[in-house]
Amino acid sequence: MQVPRRVPTPWSWALKGTRLSRTCLHVPCMGRRAASAAAMARKASDLSSESPKYELSEADMKRINFQRNIGVSAHIDSGKTTLTERILYYTGRIREIHEVRGRDAVGAKMDSMELEREKGITIQSAATFCDWNSSSPITGDKEKYAINIIDTPGHVDFTIEVERALRVLDGAILVLCAVAGVQSQTTTVDRQMRRYNVPRISFINKMDRPGANPWRVINQIRTKLKIAAAAVHVPIGVEDELRGVVDLVRWKAVYNEGEKGIDVVESDEIPADVMELAKEKRAELIEQLAEIDEEIGDLILCDEMPTNVQIAEAIRRATVGLKFSPVFLGSAIKNTAVQPLLDGVCSYLANPAESTVTAHDTTQPAAPPIPLTPAAEAPLVALAFKLEEGRFGQLTYMRVYQGTLKKGSHVFNARTDKKVKVPRLVRMHSNEMEDIDSIGPGEICAVFGVECSSGDTFTDGTTSFSMTSMYVPEPVISLAIKPIGQETPNFSRALGRFQKEDPTFKVHIDSESKETIISGMGELHLEIYVERMRREYNVACTTGKPRVAYRETITQRADFHFTHKKQTGGAGQFARVIGYVEPMVFDPEIGRDTQFESLIMGGAIPSNYIPACEKGFFEALGKGTLSGNPIVGCRMVLQDGSYHVVDSSELAFRIATISAFREIYTQTRPIILEPIMTVEVIAPSEFQSAVIGSLNQRRGTILDSEVRDEEFVCTAEVPLNDMFGYSSQLRGVTQGKGEFSMEYKTHLPVLPNVQKELAEAYRKTLPQAKK
């Protein structure tokens, strides 16, 4: 039985009461109830209407069985784009191979942006499609598969690109470096794959490099990523003598010959120098499968050796069931063992029909989620997962989950309920387009001329389905930005476009300084957008000192009893609120760490004023009085109050709640939190003490230090505020040979002296201080 893919934790509310839910329906105790949910509460059992079921036709099954939607994800410089370039070459989508940092200055096909080719990194995810004649490990026959591929960035600053790609994919290739192994961004990508329950196969790249050790990397996959894994290949030759691989499932030696390795030669004769290793690793593969697959486990218990067919079927069952990751070996830059990886994509990853995807009916909020079927005749359900400003207007990338999308047809946006026409339908090949008339379920396409936001659901109007959007991390760094010279309309146009395309890029006007503030996931993230404004919009900008996204939180409970009274002739304002605020930890049920609860009984405050109190509470959280930063980790409980028949209003209760919170805020002993980053530094071993010293200078906590061959890896937790300018310092202490990456981990309290400085600096910006 195949395990269905489940909706990630932040959306678990959509699964309450269904067989897919792993948690019980949460019933608040002590009479507590979220105010905004009070008017919506109704029992799901009262909803007798059931959604119609759609069966897959023979034509649907024939098409979907040979359809794969995959992503290529990894840490920076693991070889994702290089691997994708080889896949496109071997499948016939491109005629020549160009390297990411090649001498011909053409650049890889999937790096279409000029900045990407200059810097040698992927900034935006790029989609393409290809066909591949795959050799089945079960029958050995050649079968033609259609593969949609999304190449994603490896830098943590562009993590949203990976996030929205994995949201709509059915499988992924996790690329790892044979020398570096599991790195910081590998762990982040693994977490994203688990969030969307995406099956993965692993590819250990760069097997030609000195110091390549795939067995250490496989052990890291098991221990650090906590997933069963085993090699399905053994390398023939090591490092620069890598000639091919041994397929442990079919027990064949596979070599790449001809120009750029385009010819795959298979032999039944396993080289004598790898025979013992191949036997050992095949036994290890069977042993790993026996622990997670019932059929293989039964065979081992009966002292029977599984056949090649049984091993291949078990690998597929375990991979699709998210229990196992088969590990392929090769070298993309040396054109070795890429074709067997493509065979593995077709053989072991899920097709669109094997992914359990659900939507919820917007007309029945308490109804259980409705499973979607990739049937061409079913009502249309499609998800817009990425926006891009193209030469012909907004380009919207879509994944069709159910039904058929046709050029010239009318679709409905489930969020806005607007009817729009699809004027042009295309399939993407990096920055090139191929016009099509229609696209079926399970496919990825792009449309022009459809105004929408990232995460919007589109239907044909016969249903009111809406799909849950993707997880969007909060920005961790801010910069003040202003154009050089006179401000032109292009300045706001550029910021508006980037904000719409990238949910992690935020723009706001500071209320005190009146400066334009841009926020993002890191220094590189914001630097790229500033550079794009100069190139694409001809707007040169200057930026101020980076600002860290500090937060405030409370540390103890405090009771409030506040009366808001105002009389100015005629109807006045009156509202009294009584209750308490207390610290709160992150609640996975509601997906946040702030909450408003109402315990009002007997109509002490009319129910129509409760949402105004809730609104006032969340408005008060927007800006703390200690340092002017947003407040997190706080719950307000409203216990009692009173109102006036004439003078009370929603405005009065909103003001009363804000004032009550601010009045008792100092009694809660608030503290300031700062973002902590996980930093990974790689440098030659002789600079180990200098690197550790540089991290200690920046208040870093060393978590791990690993020496391998001639280089070492140091992992530390460092406050973001102390990481500015670290790249220059690292180059200095390592003679330009060191490199680092960092990603956001959590917020932790600042030191008392730092809190005092921040609070003092904020007080000086207040109007009364200026006077």
TrEMBL record:
Record domain Tr-type G: where: 65-353
SMART domains noted in UniProt: EFG_C, EFG_IV
A GO biological-process term: mitochondrial translational elongation
Gene3D superfamilies listed in its UniProt record: 3.30.230.10, 3.30.70.240, Elongation Factor G (Translational Gtpase), domain 3, P-loop containing nucleotide triphosphate hydrolases, Translation factors
Any GO CC annotation of this UniProt entry: mitochondrion
Subcellular location: Mitochondrion
PANTHER family recorded: ELONGATION FACTOR G, MITOCHONDRIAL
Entry's family note: Belongs to the TRAFAC class translation factor GTPase superfamily. Classic translation factor GTPase family. EF-G/EF-2 subfamily. Belongs to the GTP-binding elongation factor family. EF-G/EF-2 subfamily.
The protein's name in its UniProt record: Elongation factor G, mitochondrial
Species: Pisolithus microcarpus 441
